[in-house]
Amino acid sequence: MKKVVLALILALVCGTAYCGEVGLPLERIALPEVGSGGCLVCIWDESAGAWLQGFEAYDHAGAYDFQLPSWNRWYWIGLWDESAGKYVFGKWIGHFVSG
Fold first, then answer.
1. Burial of 69: CB neighbours in 10 Å, binned 0-12, 13-18, 19+
2. Among 1, 29, 33, 50, which residue's Cβ finds the most Cβ atoms within 10 Å?
3. Average per-residue pLDDT in the chain?
4. Is the pLDDT of residue 20 over 70?
């Protein structure tokens, strides 16, 4: 019995050492209501100093889902109002592996 418990504890300890690296984070950002005009979702990769992807049309669903391409980086998500010519929302996010 002691061997079984010890093996279980070792399995849990070893398993938790790698749990932060299972996959890349999936992020869901709540976006504000901005009327019915055309808006674009923009994602800035601070570490790369470049836009992460092409700007995507916002469907006014209230949320935006995307897969982060990498751990240990900062990303800025902005909502660009095309008719007003300005950002109407912006938020920094980052996911970091610790341990």
1. middle
2. 29
3. 82
4. no
